[in-house]
Write a structure and sequence with these properties.
Elements lengths: L17 E9 L4 H12 L12 H7 L2 E6 L2 E7 L10 H8 L11 E8 L2 H4 L8 H9 L6 E5 L8 H13 L4 E3 L12 H17 L5 E5 L4 H13 L4 E5 H4 L1 H9 L7 E4 L4 H4 L5 E2 L1 H11 L3 E3 L14 H9 L9 E5 L7 H8 L4 E3 L2 H4 L5 H16 L4 H5 L3 H10 L3
Parallel strand pairs: 4-10, 5-6, 5-13, 6-7, 7-8, 8-9, 9-11, 11-12, 12-13
Antiparallel strand pairs: 1-3, 1-4, 2-3
Bound molecules: 2-carboxyarabinitol-1,5-diphosphate and magnesium ion.
Amino acid sequence: MKSYSYLHLGESIDSDSYVICKYRVTTDLSIEKASQAIAAEQSTGTWTGISTLNDTVFERYGARVMDIQGDMVTIAYPEDDFSIEVGAIPQILSVIAGNLFGLDALKGVRLEDVDFPKGILKQYRGPKFGAEGLRKILDRPEKPLVGTIVKPKIGLSPKETANYVYEAGSGGLTNSKDDETLVDQKFCPIEDRTKAVAEALDKLNEEGHRMLHAVNISTNGEKIVELAENVQAWGAKQIMVDVITCGYGAVQALAEDSAIKVPIHVHRTMHGAFTKDPLNGISMLVITKLVRMCGGDALHIGTLGVGKMTGNGGDYDNLNTCLDSKMPYKTVMPVCSGGMYPGIVSRLIEEAGTNIQIQAGGGVAGHPEGVRKGAMGMCQAVDAACSGVSLEEYAKTHHELKVALDTWGFK
Ligand code: CAP
Ligand code: MG
C-alpha cells in the first residue's frame, strides 16, 4: 500500500484556493505525527493506508500541513474539499472541526482561526443590516447602543415584559431583548408577548424615542423561519436566535429569507462548552466569522475582561472580526453583555471603543429605584464616558448614576 505524507512544511500555496486553519495541538506524539493525523482524518486519509486512495485524489483533495510553530499547526484544505452547495456551514464544520476532536493521537486540539478563500466567501451574503443598519434604524450614529435583557430571565407575563421594555425605553435605552431561555412558555406565550412589546415600542416611538426589542425565536429547524415571519407579522422589529443551539444554518435561513425584514440579534448561549478551554475546542473567533458570513446583524462577543463571562483574551479578536473590512460583508454590531453595570462602562468603552452595543440585565433591573432609573443610570454612564468625563464627576449632577455607583461601585 502506498503511503502518503500530508506534511508540506515550508512549501508555498495559492492561499486563495484553500481554507486555512490554525489548530493548537497538545499531544504525546511528535507534533508532526499529530498534525498528519488531523490532515489525513479530515481529508483523504484514515488510520491506515487504503487501496482506494490514488495519487490524483491525494494531490487534489489531501489537506496540507503547511506550518508548525510550537503547538500551533496550520493546515490548508483545498477549496474543492468543500461543498459547492450554496452556504454549507455544516459541511465546512465537519471538515475543519469534525472527527479530529475525537482522535486518540491528540490530548487536546483547539481550532483557533480559519480563513476562507473568496470562492467560499461569495456563497454567503453577510448581514442585511449590520452595525450601520442598526444605527440607522435607531437614529444613533455614534454613541454605543445601550440595551437591556428583560430580567428575570423567565417568569414575567407578556404585559409585565412590555412594561419592562417601556420603562427601559423611557429611561433612554436603545435596545432590549428576550433572554436566551425565553421563547414560548406558558407564562409568556410568544404571540402575546410580541404584540404587547410592539405596543410599548409604538408608544415610545410616538413619544419620540426609537427602540428595538429582539424577540427570541430560537426553535426547531423546520419551524424557525415561519416563527420569525409570524413574530414580524405580530409587530416584532428585531428577532433573536441562539446560534449554537439552533445552528448556523438557522441564522443563514433567517438572514436570507426575503420576507424577513428585521435585523437579527445573535446570542451565543452554550458557546462556553467549547470556547472556554484554552487547549481544546473551538475559539469564539471562528464562531464570529461564521456568524458574519451567515448574516447575523448583532453578536455577543464578550466584555473584554470587564464583565461576568470569561473572555480568554479572545474578545478583542471577536470585536475586530465584527468590524473589520477583511470580510466582504457589512459589519456586525458587537454586543458586550454579561455582568455589565454603570460603574464599568467607562472601562469597557476604553477597551472596546464606541461602536458596540452595551447590554445590562441585572445592571438595569437591579437599580434600587427601578427599571427606568436603572436605564437612566446606564445611559448616563455611557454619556459620561463618551464625553470624556469621569463617572464620579458626572454622578455629581446625575442622581440615577450616583445611586448605581453607590450600589455596585466601580471596577
Ligand atoms: C446577561 C445575560 C446574557 C449574557 C450572555 C445573561 O445578563 O442575559 O445572556 O450576557 O453572555 O443571561 O447572563 P446580565 P455572553 O446583564 O444580568 O449579566 O454575552 O458572554 O454570551
Ligand atoms: Mg441571558
